[in-house]
Amino acid sequence: MTVLLHPAIHYRMRNARDAASTRLRTLVALTVLAANRVIAKRRKMPEKPPLPLPPDVEEFLVFLRDERRASPHTLRAYRKDLEQFLEYLSEYQGKTDLYAVERQDIRGFIALQTRLGYSKRTIQRRLSSAKSLFKFLCAEERIRLNPARLVKGPKLSKRLPHVFTQSQIEEVFAKLSMTDDADLIRDRAIVELLYDEGLRISELAGLDIQAVDFTRGEIKVFGKGSKERIVPLGSRASDAVKSY
């Protein structure tokens, strides 16, 4: 028996499908754009060396690089966060000595960041960077008490990621497969490696074709902390890379 739906229901269902398809295309476009930006940055001339920070901070960054095997991206984030913190201490508290920092100074930093309109996640990340620095100074016995230990940042709300259906994902791959455009062939290879193989964008950006073993069906990638890992290469991703 055929069930006839009210025209308004048909309209809402069609709009819902169109909206989901638009979100999916936007997600793929943003993912490809992010990957291409990282790749482009890797190909640029070397950046100018950053301005020096106080010796204690520079030694902390060296510790993160050598002992914690932090990635260049992580080190840049720490450096930027600590630059913000040191600038606050100097301009608002009149302090240039890390050993003189007190708990209320750090709380004042959080309050200022909030007034300036930074997101809770950004503020929490900057607080985490400052906490890590003072934890390092305590471990090195350069300060006796950690002024950041009991300081709490803004409470973050839990966000659930939006999940697309398998059919929506397949729709994107199908559209990327039906083209001879060189850029879209490249985009399909990017999406296949990110989706099917689970590569991070930073891993994809640093991937050389020599690291792809089509015979064995595997990819050698370097992840966080320059750790090497072997990723199985699926047939669909393999075909996409070969086409590119």
Main features:
DNA-binding; mainly alpha; Integrase_SAM-like_N; 3 strands; DNA binding; 9 helices; cytoplasm; 244 residues; three-stranded antiparallel β-sheet; 2 domains; DNA recombination; DNA polymerase, domain 1; disordered N terminus; hpI Integrase, Chain A
Report on the structure:
The protein has 244 residues and is mainly alpha-helical. It folds into two domains: 7-44 and 163-243, Intergrase catalytic core (hpI Integrase, Chain A, Orthogonal Bundle), CATH 1.10.443; 55-139, DNA polymerase, domain 1. The chain has helices spanning 7-43, 55-66, 72-92, 103-115, 120-139, 166-177, 182-195, 201-205, 235-243, and strands at residues 212-213, 218-222, 228-232. Strands 1-2-3 form a three-stranded antiparallel sheet, with no helix packed on it. Strand 1 (212-213) and strand 2 form a beta hairpin. Helix 7 (182-195) packs antiparallel against helix 9 (235-243). It is elongated, with a radius of gyration of 24 Å. The termini are far apart. The relative contact order is 0.10.
